[in-house]
Design a protein that fits this description.
The complex is a heterodimer of chains A (about 750) and B (about 160). Helix content of chain A is about 30%, strand content about 25%. Chain A is an alpha+beta fold. Chain A has 3 domains: about 150 residues, Aldehyde Oxidoreductase, domain 4, CATH 3.30.365; about 200 residues, Alpha-Beta Complex (Aldehyde Oxidoreductase, domain 3); about 325 residues, 2-Layer Sandwich (Aldehyde Oxidoreductase, domain 4). An 8-stranded mixed sheet of chain A has the order 3-7-1-14-11-12-13-24, with helices on both faces. A 5-stranded mixed sheet of chain A has the order 9-17-16-15-10, sandwiched between helices. With about 160 residues, chain B is α+β, with helices and mostly antiparallel strands. Chain B folds into 2 domains: about 80 residues, Roll (Ubiquitin-like (UB roll)), CATH 3.10.20.30; about 80 residues, [2Fe-2S]-binding domain (DNA polymerase, domain 1). Chain B has a 5-stranded mixed sheet, sandwiched between helices. In chain B, strand 1 and strand 2 form a beta hairpin. Chain B is globular and about 45 Å long. The chains are: A alpha+beta (about 750), B alpha+beta (about 160). Chains A and B meet through helix 1 and helix 18 of A and helix 2, helix 3, helix 4 and helix 5 of B. The complex binds FE2/S2 (inorganic) cluster (2 copies). Chain A: Pfam families: Ald_Xan_dh_C, MoCoBD_1, MoCoBD_2. Chain A: GO terms for molecular function: iron ion binding; oxidoreductase activity.
Chain lengths: ~750, ~160
Amino acid sequence: MFESHIAVGKSLERIDGVEKVTGSAKYATDIRLENMLHAKLIRSPHAHAKVKRIDTSSAEKLPGVRAVATILEVPKVIEYWFSLRTEKKKKQMFLRDNVVRFMGDPVLAIAADDQQTVDKALSLVKVEYEPLPAIYDPFMAMEETDVKIHSRGNIAFKVNKDYGDIQEGLKKADIIIENTYRTSKQKHAALEPFGTCVALYQSNGKLTVYSSTQLPHWSRHYLAGALDLPLNRVRVIKPHTGGSFGGRCGLIHGLEVMCSWLSRQTGRPVRMSFTREEDFIGTETRHPMTIRMKTGATRDGILTATDVDIVSDVGGYGTHYIGVIADCLSTGVGLYKTPNYSFSARAVFTNKSPCGALRGYGNPQMNFAQESQMDIIAEKLRMDPLELRLKNYRELGEIDPVLNEKILSNGLRECLEKGAELSGWEKKRHQWKRYQRSVKATRNRGIGLSIMLHGTGAGKALPDPASATVMINADGSVNLITAAADEGQGNRTVLAQIASETLGIEFEKISVSETDTETTPIDCGTHGSRQAYSGGLAVQAAATEARNQIFAYAVKELGAAEDQLRIKDGVIFEINNPDNKILISDLMRKTQIEDMNVCEQVIGSAAGVAPAMPGYYGAVFAEVEVDTETGEVKVLKLTNAFDVGRAINPDLVKGQIIGGGVMGIGFALTEGLLIEDGRILNSNFSDYRLLRACDVPEIVPIIVESDEPTGPFGAKGIGEGCMVNVASAISNAIYHATGVRLTDLCMTPEAILKGLEER
Amino acid sequence: MKKMDIKIHVNGDWYELAVNSGDRLVDVLRDQLDLTGTKEGCGEGECGACTVNLDGKAVLSCLILAVQVDGCTILTIEGLQRGSELHPLQKAFTSESAIQCGYCTPGMIMSANALIYNEPEPDEDTIRKNLSNNLCRCTGYDRPVKAVLKAAKDMKGDTNV
Ligand code: FES
Ligand code: FES
């Protein structure tokens, strides 16, 4: 189906592998600058309070203490880059006040010569609070008008959207299923804790910040806004990053701005590094949601109506609460061709830790509800859940009503078919049920499936620029200049493959720049599974321009028409006369150095926005064993098939599918912050349970390649979608195994035992 | 604060260092010897990112005080390589795509190195159990386990600690 390539479609080794296995890769936690100060925060012990007085006088007298910064002067960033579009909106991005809105909200920071002095200084600070009534439940927050978490009220955002006529749709339904689903406050738990930064404000008025942000260029905007600096005086350098999963989609609450402020006061580099506990209590999480969903279908299993109402718990601050809801809408409406869809949602502030982006955005929550509903409908209609999906999913060529875009690639059917075949779906679906009825087993096996759609990039919903520069050197090697932030998924490797393929120059000859706003053109950053697609398009365009310039020189050199020229393995040749050829290195040396009348370097640049937001698709088949005496669920196997368009690097894609699969199991079974009276109870890895090597089942990754015509070499995304529908598939498998339908995440043994009792 | 003198053998060289009584081994490696390949993921003995080899065993350097290792031999990720050639474990982690963000990788490799030193031909179950001391949020563990299995076969117990 695809023509043969030199780099695209090949599982080439990642470009940063050797650095990472030798320990030489530098992460933000490893950055040390000369004369560096150390800083630490005081965090609020109250979930909601006014800071009445801050007394730092004794702390400041301590030798070695260099600077203090408090929330009274240092602004918090409380919106995301959508707000950069207008000056008025931009102003509202920054909040400076004396209120703390969750337990752990930063109040002030001190910078000193060493960590011991900082700790001592912090113990000498006196902060006087006036506690305010705190609200932890979003439903109460909506009703309670006396307690305002933000001055504009507790409802951060609300939306109603209707497609078709919901009442008509419900009338046409033969069955209507209604349930309420609740999802947990999942934490990213990246291995490198969120919250290390080194900032240096120099006397020439220039600020340099080492930050693990996924969005170096937008972070530069945020810092420039918060510190009132021109953009060209702010430089953000993103070193290697120990995982992000959405949680570094901007700045970290209380980190970079605070550090920069302290550095500006002292003229010295300032380092701040959160502990794991601070990561758990003070940085963003997934939005917990309560989703009421009513779904109607005909006897034949044709969906007629979906009515959704969502309450999303933002916590004390949230930068992504609108986008997350928009994602629920677009993935919910987009997946099935339900003609009548009514969607309403509210994002509500509570006095809990802030919520933001986490792999999948709002999709894992929405998908859990919607795919549970589908399973219930299939059961009621005595229909194979797979058949129900096939009857209703929105197919190739149809218009997605939310995006108003035509679906140009869709491999969902193949995902379902391949997944069913490799998991043994049909057989297990029947046999395991029989087995449970025949033996009074205490270990019941079940198999369940679910599907998903996720958008690649942001399309035109958000400012989503991508750009790249490709420079060809005199020896034929290539510098690819891009701000694409690699969080570990390997997108810099993928972009190098796209450059290599487009240029016809070997992969080994491509060197990818550091991620540094000073030397790279603007890129929206790494979010929304966009880098292979949006970043890839920019690289492809820049490399195409460079290639055209090379051809222009080659036309003169070889005396052949441009359309007769080809490049392969670093050689330019005439297609019908391959002996008429020149090495790119010879040609480039000539034009750059040898011919003193020219002295030009080939430089291709491209900037712009992707033409679409293509959906990528997936089907997950989960097999579980439930111990009916303990309620323990063991995931036996996942068979996960994803349509990624063209897989630029199949090995990296499979790596995402396996890793995302495991994160999805966590979301289903073990992960969620527990909060009592505003206090997070499980702020360490013993109590917040991530899966370990001995806990994970076999995961069979299947790549389905549809050809996305708008994508570079047909590519779409994968990073987020691969975890989206794991929880719903596991839940459906648990139902198949036990007849217990769970509506709350995560699905604990206690909930399963309770379900078994009530069965 | 009173400093104490210790002598430790790290990656083939002896170092004489003055440390605070509360300094952890991970701090001394990272801050005094600039061996930042050893990572800190939790500081509480739960994630394994700080794993190094101490007298032939895998230990969590965030739980050990520097003063406790006076006179000991320590190997960190930076000392694993043999000259300009990557160690078989390092090779296997790259060739088997066992790395994503790489933050867990030094700890995983050092855990595996001690395992193979003490048990030259571990089977998959043993490796899986052993790597369960190391959290990884990216890879889902499948490939690190396969990488160690491959390296163990190549090495047949021949490793330095
Ligand atoms: S940092 Fe030592 S175990 Fe996590
Ligand atoms: S590769 Fe990122 S934590 Fe293991």
